[in-house]
Amino acid sequence: MALVIKKIYKSFILFFTIMSIPNNRSLGIQKNKLLRYKLIKELYQKHKTEDIPTTVVWRKYVYPVYPISRTTLYEILCTPITSELKKIEELINSKNKSS
């Protein structure tokens, strides 16, 4: 009985150790999302001027290409894309070096 409990405990610890470290797939998904955010932000900045409201830029230029909500656009505009990309690149590089 004690041996079974020990095996279950080891499996439990291993599972949570693996889940706490982001794997390459989730890092790749995060990286692709940030690259898409970067494209959307560049498109927005290309058409945004002082006299054009954000909602108009979203409706005329962003939404036809990237069908996202205004809330998502505001989230993208507030996201520090370059710093997040740097963090992910460092994590991917450190995982590749340790492999």
Structure report:
The chain is mainly α and 99 residues long. The chain has 5 helices and no strands. It has helices at 2-20, 24-47, 54-65, 70-78, 81-98. It is elongated and about 70 Å long.
Summarize the structure.
The chain is mainly α and 99 residues long.
In terms of topology, how is this protein built?
Layout: H1 2-20, H2 24-47, H3 54-65, H4 70-78, H5 81-98
The overall strand count is 0
Sheet of most strands: none
Q: What is the overall shape?
A: elongated
How much strand?
under 5%
How many DSSP H or I helices? 5
Structural class: mainly alpha
Query: Kindly state the mean pLDDT as a whole number?
Result: 85
Distance between the termini: 37 Å
Estimated helix fraction:
over 70%
User: Mind telling me the C-alpha Rg?
Assistant: 21 Å
Low confidence ranges: none
Return the string of H and E elements.
Answer: HHHHH
